[in-house]
Amino acid sequence: MTSTGSRRTSGRDSSSGPARAGRLPAAQTDQDPTQRAKDICLRLLTVRPRTRAELRQALLRKEITDQVADQVLGRLDEVGLIDDAAFADLWVRSRHTHQGLGRRALAMELRRKGVADDVAADAMATVDDEAEEERARQLVRKRLRSLTAADDTARVRKLVGMLARRGYSEGLAFRVVRDELRAAGEETDLLDGPL
Q1: Alpha-carbon distance 137 to 175, whole Å?
Q2: If you ran DSSP here, which 8-state letter would residue 144 be given?
Q3: Nearest 5°: phi and psi at 161?
Q4: Whole-number Å distance between alpha carbons of 49 and 90
């Protein structure tokens, strides 16, 4: 049994382990830095659209120099593979529609992705007050169905908290929750008074 065990480990270790591990980094270091940077960017862009800042960070993590990164990103921008405005528009539509995020949360996400504030503002302009309020109402209606056993205080706290976490303003959150509770026939005095 020991001879079989030693054959298995010696066969794997000597033929493929160290030799393979040594070849991969050598192939990467032999590659032209510009071509390597292009390959990294194109690989990332095939997964999903990315901002210029996201691609730059990825290149710097892979030890691509600033000069090469700027050159490659400039070329990708010229040919239209990087477009922060289009990215922001798509991001806002998707995250508002599918995740139910409000404008405040969308602005923070775009900032983290490296989108300029003016570009982000243009993209978020597609979500007007009416659309944001309607999406908040949809979220409250959906969540309200699962909160039938909770008391008034817990229900209000959970609904307002859910909207706040998704980037809706406090005033909008309280107004929508009050209106939707009344529409569902669940009067509560917790939300009475000015907001």
Answers
A1: 10
A2: H
A3: -65, -40
A4: 9
Question: For the whole model, what pTM was predicted?
Answer: 0.73
| Angle (CA) 90 124 117, round 5° | 100
Backbone torsions φ then ψ of 54, nearest 5 degrees? -60, -45
Contacts of 58 (CB under 8 A, 6+ apart): 40, 41, 44, 50
DSSP secondary-structure letter at 147?
A: G
Q: How many CB atoms lie within 10 A of CB 136?
A: 25
Nearest CA-CA partner of 107 in 118, 98, 99: 118
Tell how far CA 139 is from the center of its chain: 20
Chain segment 163-185, per-residue pLDDT in tens: 999 999 999 999 999 999 988 87
Written as six digits, the tokens of 142 are 């959906």
Q: Output the pLDDT for position 146.
A: 86
What dihedral do alpha carbons 61, 65, 71, 76 form, nearest 10°? -10
- Average pLDDT for 41-63: 95
Which of 87-96, 110-119, 150-159 comes out lowest in average pLDDT? 150-159
Amino acid sitting at position 167: G
